Amino acid sequence: MKKYLVLFLIVFTKIDVTACDICGCGSGSYYFGLMPQFHKNFVGMRYRYSAFDSHLGLGYGGLFATQEVFRTTEIWGRFYPHRKVQMLAFLPYQFNSQKEKGGTKNLNGLGDAVITANYNVFNTLYDTTVFKHSFWIGGGMKLATGKHEYDESNMAQVANPNFQLGTGSNDFMLTANYTLRYRKFGVNTDLTYKINTQNAENYRFGNRLSGNLQGFYVKRIGSVGFMPNAGLYFENSATDLKNNYLVENTGGNLLAATLGMEVFFKSISMGINFQQPIAQNLANGQIKSQNRVLLHLTFLF
After folding, report:
1. What is the C-alpha to C-alpha distance for residues 32 and 265, in angstroms, rounded to an integer?
2. β-pair type (171-182, 203-204)
3. How many CA atoms lie within 13 A of 259 on its CB side?
4. 2-300 is a CATH 2.40.128.130 domain
């Protein structure tokens, strides 16, 4: 049964993209999700989907209504250079589209890569005690590998700092993760704080705090392991800065309910995660986040 236990959950989700310079969710957006079999190396593919409705003026449903859709296909992997240290890497390819009355604009290309390192402070998951727990701390960097073009005078481009393929900045992340398990049931909680730096265009996205509380159940049927999971996800993004001045209608917070399923068979892991917003205040109410979906197919070794 232990070989099917998934107990390392790290979340990095970005709330900063828009139309009309309103900040919703886009470039630099990362959701790490449930990590398959925390003690093994892996490599795999993931697909992430998110959408945001933007309405500038006269409240929601007002002027200049647009919709931003972000689709990401990425390679991800994990490697243990030491039994208490894990390295994680993510290389995304973005498919962004912005729909408005004048038509649709698209941006496709390499996004911002991420690399992190995490240290296992303690781990009793393999002990014979009824209650078991594990605690990880770490950090990493988001690298400016994605293209960032923000030219307000060029009407052919999406003149929006948040809709770009990358943020144009190298940013830092701090993480902490704790898991408690009782027999087949468990609870996972984690916090992530992302510290953003200023890019070459003197734009700095607001720092972001995200947190997750998730319950799970481990079940094995024959040679296949299942782990249904559900919980809450919260994120808060500070106001952006341009030339050290606050940018209006940026930042905000969101609370979402999460529901997912992980399936394991031998060296293969598959999973799906669904997020439904239940409370949000993005860009002073002028951005509304829609449902988010994450899929993955991973090979363990």
Report:
1. 21
2. unpaired
3. 4
4. yes
What are the domain boundaries of the chain? Answer: 2-300
Rounded-to-integer distance, Cα 107 and Cα 184, Å: 44
**Token match 């919260």: residue?**
234
Chain centroid to CA 280:
17
pLDDT of amino acid 22: 41
Residue 23 has pLDDT above 60, yes or no: no
pLDDT at 34: 56
For residue 296, which phi and psi values (nearest 5 degrees)? -150, 150
Tally the residues of the chain.
301
Judge whether residue 62 has pLDDT over 70. Answer: no
pLDDT tens column, 226-282: 999 999 999 999 999 999 999 988 999 999 999 999 999 999 999 999 999 999 999
State the chain's mean pLDDT as an integer.
83
Mapping DSSP onto H, E and C, the string for the chain reads CHHHCCCEECCCCCCCCCCCCCCCCCCCCCCCCEECCCCCCEEEEEEEEEEEEECCCCCCCCCCCEEEEEEEEEEEEEEEEECCEEEEEEEEEEEEEEEECCEEEEEEEECCCEEEEEEEEEECCCCCCCEEEEEEEEEEEECCCCCCCCCCCCCCCCCCCCCCCCCCCCEEEEEEEEEEEECCEEEEEEEEEEECCCCCCCEECCCEEEEEEEEEECEEECCEEEEEEEEEEEEEECCCEECCEECCCCCEEEEEEEEEEEEEECCEEEEEEEEEEEEEEEHHHCEEECCEEEEEEEEEC
